[in-house]
Structure formats: structure tokens, C-alpha cells
Amino acid sequence: MAVAFRKQTLLPLDDCLYTLQATIPSLTRSALHRCFQRHGISRLPEVEGDRPAKEKFRKYPIGYFHVDIAEVRTEQGKLIFFRVHAWACEQNSIEHRRTKPKHPWTNGQVERMNRTLKEATVKRNYYQTHQQLKEHLQTFLMAYNFAKRLKTLKGLTPYQFICQQWQKTPLKFTINPLHHSVGLNT
């Protein structure tokens, strides 16, 4: 049953696990992985379009190194040359973003989520209008927040995790998250 499900849906291991646990409660991640390995389906096939097409390396003169700066990130601390820095960024259309000092993991988390969003939208689809992109992005976010079970949240969806936290410690919340669920009136 698990093998046929994996071959039919081509879902990742954790998604298969969460789906199959509804019918096989005693199923563990390691047992499912071993089953997939035995049947030669532990790795998902490469999907065309996952990676950008390789381009030929441009021929530049020896010693030339081309870099297009899009943004500069600094910590919230003082910049010795703040005015010069701000002027240079503005003149070259460079966005200056700041992160919290001594919190390098927040930047990595944001970058990973941005990568997830890009992989699900602009790297897979071509949009005729900006509105099409906005609609598809909204659909993806709804599926991510209300349907995708995450291993880091112990198999819960982000919405389920927030509701669980609200029930444990409601004083940390200003509003009841249960009133923000998707339903017939949305």
C-alpha cells in the first residue's frame, strides 16, 4: 500500500508518513524509509525545471571579476561611515537591510523561506500578470499554512501548531487564532 502510494503521488518521505499514519497508526518514519529503500523508491526522481538551466561561462579578460550588488546586509550596530554608505547604496540602487545583532539564524530562516516561495512559484511557473503571481502565491501560502505538515513542528501544520500553543498559553496571544481559520466565509 505504501509503495503504491509513493509511486502514485511522488510525495516526499515525511508527507507520505503523515498521510499514511492516518490509516496505519503504528507506522514509523524509519520503517517507511526502509520499505521505500527495499523497493528502490527512496529517492524521488529529478523533476525537469527544479534547477535552472546551465549557462556557458562568459569569456572575460584575465583578472576581471564581475559582481552585481543587489543588497548589503549589516547588523543593527552603528556604521562608522553611515552617510557615505547610505549615499553609495542609494546611488547604485542597492537595498540596505539590517538584521538583529548576534542573531545570524534569523537571516538564514528568512532566506530559506524565500527560497521555498521562489521554488513553488516563479521557478516553476510563468505568469502573464502580476495578479496571477499574487493569486498563486496566496494559494501556496494557504496550502503551506493549513495543509503542509512540517517535521520541525512534529508533524503539525503551522496553523495547528499555533492553535496548540494558544491552548497551552493563551496569555501570550492578543487574539484567538481559532477565529482565523479557513472556512466557508473566507
What does this structure look like?
With 186 residues, this protein is mainly alpha-helical. Helix content is 44%, strand content 5%. The protein has helices at residues 2-9, 13-20, 29-38, 82-91, 104-120, 130-146, 158-168, and strands at residues 71-75, 95-99. Strands 1-2 form a two-stranded parallel ribbon. The protein starts with a helix and ends in an 18-residue tail after the last helix. The mean pLDDT is 79.
For the largest beta-sheet, the strand count, sense and barrel status come to: 2 strands, parallel
Shape: extended
Give the strand tally: 2
Distance linking N and C termini: 36 Å
Average pLDDT level? 79
Primary descriptors:
186 residues, mainly alpha, two-stranded parallel sheet, 7 helices, 2 strands, extended, Retrovirus_Pol_polyprotein, RNaseH_sf
Short description:
By secondary structure, the protein is mainly alpha-helical. 44% of the residues lie in helices and 5% in strands. Among the domains are: 1-45, no CATH class; 149-186, no CATH class.
Record the SSE blueprint.
Layout: H1 2-9, H2 13-20, H3 29-38, E1 71-75, H4 82-91, E2 95-99, H5 104-120, H6 130-146, H7 158-168
Parallel strand pairs: 1-2
Protein name: Integrase catalytic domain-containing protein
Domain Integrase catalytic: 72-166
GO molecular function, one term: nucleic acid binding
